């Protein structure tokens, strides 16, 4: 699974380009990408075309760009040549503000694209078009007006089921509780559409707040809606949002059932790649401080990506976990608050809570990633993580989850780390310490990823030098 998202909250949509990857839909790893390299990176969408290549669409206000790659992780390059070349300029379709581009591939392979924001004004709506085979232009375009898609604001997404086209979109303000998902139907991809109703909105107690800007994942005959909602407790103006998933079902007549949003998600969609239990789950925990009762220390050991331990200060704060008894520890995963920033920290273990041994020393770390994976070998009852610094001032060592594992997973996450080089060829692949115990750095030549016989391969060109 590949999940394309943009930085939120403190990131302000300024990048960096990234993709989250998972084999089971539970354990996710953040991977930086080489492109886009623009100032803003908003509302990404990726599709695989009939030529086997992947196409990455993203927005800046208010234009859409498109890149192409042989793999869903890049390296990408703009299909029009220049990195900043624009595929869809603003108002390309009259009265459709160009933003939130989304593709749909019909049964015959035809590609359609939909885009729009602030479509609530009279005569406005969503831009739509049938793409040329090379995706560089459009054969046909149309405005889907807000008289067809009632209260259309932004974030269109189209699916087809049993011959019916479902045009789904967000209404209301993304800053408050009015943000919601609605839909309309048609027997043609460009419409005209007939309004179908609201299917996802803020729940009664407000803990699922402002859900919207969704996509749909189909697994066999099962449908899932993936959307963002405001964090808990709600941040100012809804600028900190989190990604969620729930089931989506249809009635016998083809209408979409009202979605009951949950705090649980749907679990694994494939066999879990992590076979070992999380020894820290639900265990007793204490910390140097917590910001308030909404950011309690136990939230770091609840395996919940919607709850966060946040210390009160920005200095050397610590979190200590009591595993209940002495156990073997070889792997510790830490999911810090912001996956695109580096954190500096020290992990120690102890059998009695008084005498401590270093498990992982990352006090000079300058690598970002999520999760941060540390390998060692200890027999201990207590685990303590001390935050010592970070990439940005004013950001403390807040943690979503710490996972303590007795073994070394066969499919442990790996991190692609972007350095100061201008392109992918200057990147570093940091392998999991404890397996190879170091990193390979490209010193000369060229290296690239390629799909060979159905498997990912790292291709080293003649003359390439890697330093270990």
TrEMBL record:
| Record Gene3D superfamilies | Galactose-binding domain-like, Glycosyl hydrolase domain, family 43
Q: Which residues form a coiled coil?
A: none
Picking any one GO biological process from the record gives: xylan catabolic process
Pfam families from the entry?
F5_F8_type_C, Glyco_hydro_43
Q: Where is this site: Important for catalytic activity, responsible for pKa modulation of the active site Glu and correct orientation of both the proton donor and substrate?
A: 100
Question: Which keywords annotate this record?
Answer: Carbohydrate metabolism, Glycosidase, Hydrolase, Polysaccharide degradation, Xylan degradation
* PROSITE patterns, per the entry: FA58C_3 (PS50022)
Record InterPro entries: FA58C, Galactose-bd-like_sf, Glyco_hydro_43, Glyco_hydro_beta-prop_sf, Glycosyl_Hydrlase_43_Enz
Q: Which GO MF term does the entry hold, naming one?
A: hydrolase activity, hydrolyzing O-glycosyl compounds
> What CDD domains does this protein's entry cite?
GH43_F5-8_typeC-like (cd18608)
Q: Which residues does the UniProt record annotate as the domain F5/8 type C?
A: 268-407
Q: Does the keyword Nucleotide-binding apply?
A: no
Q: Which family does it belong to?
A: Belongs to the glycosyl hydrolase 43 family.
**What PANTHER family does UniProt report for this protein, alphabetically?**
ENDO-1,4-BETA-XYLANASE, PUTATIVE (AFU_ORTHOLOGUE AFUA_2G04480)-RELATED
| Protein name in UniProt | Family 43 glycosylhydrolase
Organism listed in the record: Bacteroides uniformis
């Amino acid at each position: 699974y590949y999940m394309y998202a943009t930085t939120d909250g403190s990131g302000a949509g300024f990048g960096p380009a990234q993709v989250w990857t998972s084999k089971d839909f539970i354990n996710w790893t953040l991977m930086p990408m080489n492109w886009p390299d623009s100032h803003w990176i908003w509302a990404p969408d990726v599709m695989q075309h009939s030529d086997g290549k992947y196409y990455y669409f993203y927005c800046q206000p208010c234009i859409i760009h498109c890149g192409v790659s042989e793999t869903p992780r890049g390296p990408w390059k703009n299909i029009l040549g220049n990195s900043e070349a624009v595929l869809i300029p603003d108002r390309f379709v009259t009265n459709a503000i160009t933003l939130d581009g989304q593709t749909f591939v019909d049964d015959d392979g035809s590609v359609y694209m939909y885009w729009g924001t602030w479509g609530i004004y009279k005569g406005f709506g969503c831009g739509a078009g049938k793409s040329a085979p090379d995706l560089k232009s459009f054969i046909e375009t149309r405005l889907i007006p807000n008289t067809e898609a009632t209260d259309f604001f932004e974030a269109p997404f189209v699916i087809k089921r049993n011959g019916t086209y479902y045009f789904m979109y967000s209404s209301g303000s993304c800053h408050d509780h009015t943000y919601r998902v609605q839909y309309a139907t048609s027997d043609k991809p460009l419409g005209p559409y007939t309004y179908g109703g609201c299917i996802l909105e803020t729940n009664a107690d407000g803990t699922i707040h402002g859900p919207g800007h969704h996509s749909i994942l189909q697994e066999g005959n099962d449908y899932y809606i993936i959307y963002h909602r405001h964090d808990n407790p709600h941040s100012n103006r809804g600028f900190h949002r989190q990604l969620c998933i729930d089931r989506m079902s249809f009635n016998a007549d083809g209408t979409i059932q009202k979605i009951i949003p949950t705090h649980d998600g749907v679990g694994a969609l494939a066999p879990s790649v992590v076979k070992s239990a999380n020894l820290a789950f639900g265990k007793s925990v204490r910390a140097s401080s917590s910001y308030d009762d909404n950011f309690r220390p136990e939230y770091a050991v609840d395996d919940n990506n919607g709850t966060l331990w946040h210390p009160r200060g920005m200095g050397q704060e610590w979190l200590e976990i009591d595993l209940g008894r002495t156990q073997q520890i070889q792997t510790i995963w830490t999911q810090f608050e912001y996956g695109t920033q580096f954190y500096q920290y020290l992990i120690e273990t102890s059998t009695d809570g008084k005498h401590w041994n270093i498990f992982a020393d990352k006090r000079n770390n300058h690598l970002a990633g999520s999760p941060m994976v540390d390998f060692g070998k200890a027999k201990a009852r207590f685990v303590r993580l001390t935050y010592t610094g970070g990439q940005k001032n004013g950001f403390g060592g807040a943690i979503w989850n710490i996972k303590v594992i007795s073994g070394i997973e066969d499919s442990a996450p790996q991190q692609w780390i972007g350095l100061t080089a201008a392109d992918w060829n200057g990147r570093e692949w940091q392998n999991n310490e404890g397996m190879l115990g170091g990193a390979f750095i490209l010193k000369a030549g060229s290296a690239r990823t390629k799909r060979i016989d159905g498997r990912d391969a790292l291709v080293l060109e003649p003359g390439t030098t890697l330093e270990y």
